[in-house]
Amino acid sequence: MLKYSLRRLLGMLPMLLLISIVVFTLAKLMPGDSLSGEIDPNNTDPQYIEEMRQKMGYYDPVPVQYYNWISKFAQGDFGKSTRYKIQVSDVILEKLPNTLMLGGTSILITYILAFIMGTYAGRKPYSLADNLIGGFNYAGLSIPSFVAAVFAIYIFSFKLNWFPSNGSVDITITQGTLDWYLSKLHHVILPALVLGALSTASYTQFLRNDIIDNSRKDFVRTARAKGTPESRIYNVHILRNSIIPLITYLGFDIVAIISGAIITETIFTYPGIGKLFLESVGTRDYPVMMALTMFFSLMTLVGNLIADILYGVVDPRIRLD
């Protein structure tokens, strides 16, 4: 297992190098530059902008610009945000806890709902409850997240006034107190419910279909023939095998926790790194945009590795060599 993990980690290096080239190239192909948004004919001296471009190396040859960027990036220097005027790492670290909280809460909701509905529908296929769960899943698959978010805000924030419609915490509460943490939890519940409920559909259907498929296999018939209690058959023999497909999603869920739901964060005005990424594209804040893109790519590769390792943990028949 350790050798496999080290080999996969070393294999990520050329992949990350290739991704960095693509990210840098796409950023250079975008119109304008990081200083384009700073130009105001009434307040900005064009000579000052040109001096800043010279200082930041925008007129250097493209290979030199790439080398300067990737060498600093490899040392942990992501550059300075042209919008916030502070280090990119500080900007990301400021938004990251909110995204971790939103992503973690939404995934917890997703797995709880999917496990309950998937196991029940799998044990009682083609029943009324199974059809109702299937209808809920199809609705979740067909409704776009931005539509669900708008309706959730209208119903639960404006009409019922149960949850706040924006932000991540009440700014009037002192930071670090119990009320402050409760306020953060209160603000994250509604966007997390939107994300979690919509993501539940595919998880539930995979779990349901796998339980039905495994219940018809020979090892289950053998267990029944030996007189094994039905509850043990489902909980030990069927469920453990049916959980394996969900492990595939778990690796990608790590990316979802880090990257956040860009659309949902934007609609709820939730200050996470998903919303930060969208803002960096709109304001041409290339240092932030490129750092986040590389970060998302790294987490995707790490998520795939974790998913493969979990395969071997859940199913001992899978050997990682």
TrEMBL record:
Alphabetical list of InterPro entries matching this protein: BPD_transp_1_N, MetI-like, MetI-like_sf
Lipid bilayer topology: Multi-pass membrane protein
Domain ABC transmembrane type-1: 96-307
GO biological process: transmembrane transport
SUPFAM superfamilies: MetI-like (SSF161098)
Bilayer-crossing regions: 9-27, 100-120, 132-156, 188-207, 246-268, 288-314
Keywords recorded for this protein, A-Z: Cell membrane, Membrane, Transmembrane, Transmembrane helix, Transport
One matching Pfam family: BPD_transp_1
Major location category of this protein: membrane
Subcellular location(s) per record: Cell membrane
GO CC annotations on file: plasma membrane
Family statement: Belongs to the binding-protein-dependent transport system permease family.
Protein name: ABC transporter permease
Organism of derivation: Neobacillus notoginsengisoli
